[in-house]
Design goal:
By secondary structure, the chain is mainly α. It is built from 11 helices and no strands. Helix content is 72%, strand content 0%. α1 runs antiparallel to α2, α2 packs antiparallel against α4 and α4 crosses α5. It is a multi-pass membrane protein.
């Protein structure tokens, strides 16, 4: 079993991350690079949680062996407390051979650092960019990330200057690397403590309040009213952006040099807006070079970015609204069936998603 537990958990966690990504994502619509980067990020996060108990059990066993073999003289300068040699150290089933875990943690740590601070933020900025070429998108992503990380560099530079000026410290490459690791870990630990502090209070409180009759239904009504306002605002914003796209599409004809940029913007618009604009435009009308009302490429880049953001926001609110409606209908059915004499759960509206056959077999209306 030496190292077998580590190998099994590495394989298990990979398929777990793949299953969750398939459950909450769409492989057909997403780019392969996005799928790989997201899968790797989730995989590394889950690995830390699952492999940590193996590392702890192995460390306890190694310390036990060291304590058995150490003498009282050696224990004075060590953190190991000697124990009688008659006591045996039981090798755990999750034991990992020496030399594997340091390499494993280095690979996980530095890969996570690369994804967190470089690759994933760059990919997010690249996807939100309004550029019409790969070079333009890369340039925009680099500028946005340079501005974003400029604040972190200022803090890191201040600490670096302090260490360099202080005569008690001798600045070397190892110390510089340590400062960078400490800064990254401090940011991660602060975010982790903040989220854990909120979750430790909110999760038990939500379950406690959820046991109250009618509480979840009233809370869902409140969320629906709030989301309805956000949904209406997103639809209004999308209408305004589509109106600007329509004006640009009508002004820039088929033989204009910037027509390719307009076609790229139209592909990002919802299908109903594309059909509406296609019926109202005449692509066979030549453009007049003497007119000065044509937008520049920079304005089209800005419009392209606004289209991407407004469409994503509109789709997000639509999905959230659909999920909230299904939850509200279900909670209303719960309230109605509590006083039902038929002793069977009756749904007012059935879910659009196909139900699992196994769950449907055991989780019957009577149950």
């Amino acid at each position: 079993m030496s190292g077998a537990a580590l190998g099994l958990e590495i394989v298990f966690v990979f398929f777990l991350a793949l299953f969750l990504l398939h459950r909450y994502g769409d492989f057909k619509k997403q780019h392969r690079l996005v799928i790989i980067a997201t899968l790797l990020a989730w995989y590394l996060c889950f690995l830390i949680v699952f492999i940590l108990p193996l590392d702890v059990s192995t460390t306890i066993y190694n310390r036990c062996k060291l304590a058995v073999n150490s003498s009282p003289a050696e224990s004075n300068d060590s953190y190991v407390t000697p124990i009688p040699s008659k006591q045996k150290c039981f090798k755990p089933w999750s034991y990992i051979p020496d030399g594997i875990m340091p390499i494993f943690w280095r690979v996980v740590y530095w890969t996570s650092q690369f994804l967190t601070w470089i690759l994933l933020p760059f990919m997010q900025s690249y996807a939100r960019s309004g550029g019409f070429s790969i070079t333009g998108k890369i340039k925009t992503a680099l500028i946005e990330n340079a501005i974003y990380y400029g604040t972190y560099l200022l803090i890191f530079g201040a600490f670096l200057i302090y260490v360099a000026v202080n005569p008690n410290f001798n600045l070397q490459w190892n110390q510089l690397q340590t400062i960078g690791i400490a800064a990254a870990n401090t940011w991660g630990l602060f975010l982790l403590v903040l989220l854990l502090g909120y979750g430790l209070v909110e999760i038990p409180r939500s379950h406690w309040n959820g046991a109250k009759r009618g509480y979840l239904l009233m809370k869902t009504y409140f969320k629906a009213a709030k989301l309805m306002t956000e949904k209406a605002d997103a639809e209004e914003n999308l209408e305004d952006i589509m109106e600007e796209v329509r004006k640009v599409s009508e002004s820039i004809k088929y033989n204009h040099p910037l027509r390719k940029c307009v076609d790229t913007i139209l592909k990002k618009c919802p299908t109903e807006y594309q059909e509406r604009m296609g019926r109202n435009m005449d692509d066979y009308e030549d453009f007049d070079e003497r007119q000065n009302s044509y937008p520049s490429e920079k304005n089209l880049v800005k419009l392209h970015k606004q289209v991407i953001y407004s469409v994503q926001r509109h789709r997000r609110t639509q999905v959230q609204w659909q999920i909230l409606l299904e939850q509200a209908f279900y909670l209303e059915d719960v309230a109605k069936n509590e006083t039902s004499a038929t002793r069977q759960f009756v749904h007012t509206f059935h879910s659009q998603e196909p139900e699992n056959k196994i769950i449907q077999y055991f989780y019957t209306p009577t149950v």
